[in-house]
Automatic annotation (TrEMBL):
It is a multi-pass membrane protein. It is found in: Membrane. Belongs to the purine permeases (TC 2.A.7.14) family. GO terms for molecular function: purine nucleobase transmembrane transporter activity; purine nucleoside transmembrane transporter activity. The chain crosses the membrane at residues 29-52, 58-81, 102-121, 133-157, 164-184, 196-215, 227-254, 274-296, 303-324, 330-349. Coiled coil: none annotated. Keywords: Membrane, Transmembrane, Transmembrane helix, Transport. This is Probable purine permease. The keyword Transmembrane applies. GO terms for cellular component: membrane. It comes from Tagetes erecta.
Amino acid sequence: MKRGQQTATMGDTTIMATKVSPAAKKALMILNCILLSVGNCGGPLIMRLYFIHGGSRIWLSAFLETAGWPFILIVLFVLYIHRRYSATTQDKSEKLTYVPIVYMRPRVFFAAAVIGVMTGLDDYLYACGVSRLPVSTTSLIIASQLSFTAVFAFLLVKQKFTPYTINAVVLLTIGAVVLAFHGSRDRPKGVSKFEYYKGFSLTVTAAALYGLVLPSVELMYNKAKQAITYTLVLEIQMVLCLFATIFCTIGMFINNDFKVIPREAMNFGLGETRYYVVLCVNVVFWQCFFLGAIGVVFCASSLLSGIIIAVLLPVTEALAVIFYKEPFQVEKGIALVLSLWGFTSYFYGEYKHMKKKDRKQSLGDGSMELPQTNYSSV
């Protein structure tokens, strides 16, 4: 068998699993970090740009967050071609190699579909917040998502609370309360106090719902009864985005967004052509975020993914202040410090937990399996 290939037997066929060299894995990791950084900073900014210059369709904005799911099909196709090539180059003495097109089993598909609908609702709530609040405020509120994630992870996947987790939850909660107390001092023009507080509460709800989504995905992985590989993770993410997009598309039909879009484009502050450019760039940025987050979690850990997002929080704040001239009051500064302190506490606790876990496990060979190695038909 050629170096870098691994097989698993199923009946009279052999399933091929291709391994990536450490150098290729490092390159993939760097690429995913770049995608995550671009999407995490660019997504909220470009969405806010749409609302600043006259856009008002909430369902359309929610739709754009996951409408880029066909990009994942391209990645899956490339991985499939790679597996096919690896299968045809193995030794002739091997058994007939089976190269499945889809790894996802029905139980995982239905679970991903349900979580996808939850994601679609979360996208809508988040878009409601962005339409009424400055990006700097929205980003700080979304930071409280970590608190909700910790609580739901405890309830769903029995993740234990540690002093570091409790400290993080308290700090992030205080940060959100500080923002609520400063009221509507950073209220955008044309937004009433009622609309401002409505956007604030909807953004908190979006953070809470996404805090439920993440442990739900982890629970799905635990109950999948099949190996979780990069290809399978991409398939799951595609289904999530697909059903989130379907959910938002139904909302667009009910709200008559498709009829209003041409008229809104004509009245857009930056011009009709740039209106559609903003929509397309919106899709690209958010898909970069999703693909990057998936890749970082798989290549390294969810811990590193969370650290990158946390580190980029002040970057997003600074970009919002620079490009949109958003006010940055003392309350936002306090909330930002508390958020970063909470993130640091949480991730330090996770780091210590992972180090303890690594001591109990033998080290692997440093390679990463891309396709499924123990896939069996349903």
